[in-house]
Hints:
Keywords: ATP-binding, Ligase, Nucleotide-binding, Protein biosynthesis, Transferase
Number of strands: 16
Strand content: 15-25%
Low-confidence stretches: none
EC number: 6.3.5.-
GO biological process, one term: glutaminyl-tRNAGln biosynthesis via transamidation
Number of helices: 16
Largest sheet: 9 strands, mixed
GO molecular function, one term: transferase activity
Radius of gyration: 30 Å
Family: Belongs to the GatB/GatE family. GatB subfamily.
Shape: elongated
Number of domains: 3
Structural class: alpha+beta
Amino acid sequence: MAAVAPALGTPEQIAKYEPVIGLEVHVQLGTNTKIFCSCPNEFGSAPNTNVCPVCLGMPGALPVLNHHAVELAIQASYALHCEVRNKSIFARKNYFYPDLPKGYQISQFDKPLSEFGWVDIVLEDGSAKRIGITRIHMEDDAGKNTHDGYKDSDTYSYVDLNRCGSPLTEIVSEPDMRSSEEAFQYLTELKLALQFVGVSSCDMEKGHLRCDANVSVRLKGTEPFGTKVEIKNLNSFRFLRQAIDFEIARQVGVLESGGRILQETRLYNADLGETFGMRSKEQAHDYRYFPEPDLVPLQISEEWKARVKAAMPELPANMRKRFIQDYGLKKYDAEVLTATRAVAEFYEAAAAASGDPKLAANWVTSDLFGLLKADGKEIEESPVTGERLGELVALVAKGELTGKLAKEVLPKMFTTGDSARAIMEREGLKAMNDTGEIERIIDQIVAANPKQVEQYKGGKTTVIGFFVGQVMKASRGQANPATVTEILSKKLA
């Protein structure tokens, strides 16, 4: 008779415990070739085509370290505020699995690439917290087992070794997180920083970012950690939150029913919303680490570190603060405009050319984003450059174009690639600054609508919006709405 799993902890029971969470994040570095050989480091090739004797683990094949992979790993370290060691050592991590043809993984153990970093996060309630990073080390990736998609998948699993030898950094956090929300925000900020620097695309669908969560619980007020359970291969941010929340409830349920937590590796079943046991969890000594005999220690000079650090771009967290402080943007707009490095650089160019950063932010996040979405384009593909959009915004800010006319001009810029001024001159689109002409139009509108005039004079002042709309229509959007409103207020008084 199958054992019945303990019930999950109730909200009241869960409230008695404090979760302790750490994340191990594997990030595939964006190199053209693999870490120890010249095979292509690319996704989507036919199975087992991007392989050679080195990544297949053939006898006598020797690894050669990819310089670019090291450079990207150093950049990742600085993006996460880590201290890069002058000397790090590769080691063999020994274990057997079908997708690991060498029978070991080349990794780093007691002397990793970098240590002692941190990521600052902001929670939904506005509070801030710093999450420590224990270490970042380099390693080669394993292949991939495929358990479905073939006609005989009910009998066989297939192994694709194309991913073997792809360069990875493993980023190990301190056990500083106390909720699934903190884990979510940490992973979000980490991913954004690495994308900004250009270390990796961090595309989870392609396996470029994979996350394991270490979760335990302890009674509030107690110091010792509980028994840690590792949840492997969480491949989406949503599943990360769901898996952690379930695991917390499961562990509390076990403890409250008098059971004990087993140190094990578990997987998350997204269809059921549950974790399930995969295998007992190994200790480090179970991997029989020893120095990789075919690779010399990795020496990173102070000159190399200084050169990488000097070339680092501004990090997104700093950029968000600057946009809020220097440009007066709201927190939400600053977050949207730093969602990717390309968006941030586009906005910076628009803001500089416009002379009005807040107005430029509105045009980027609303009008331009709308056109890009409708056309299925990313901002890197925008036919309108940041400088050109800034020029359009400057024309609005100076009163040479009304907002309504500018909304007509931008789609034409998007279609033709022409500047705003060229389109204005070609089509005769410019703001009407002749107050005499505006008054003439207003007089005609007022005379044609005596009923609305009486309503306004009777106290229904909102009717002025009707008159403004009629004037804007008659002027083809060229009249300045503020000027129209001012003149109407005087004439209707």
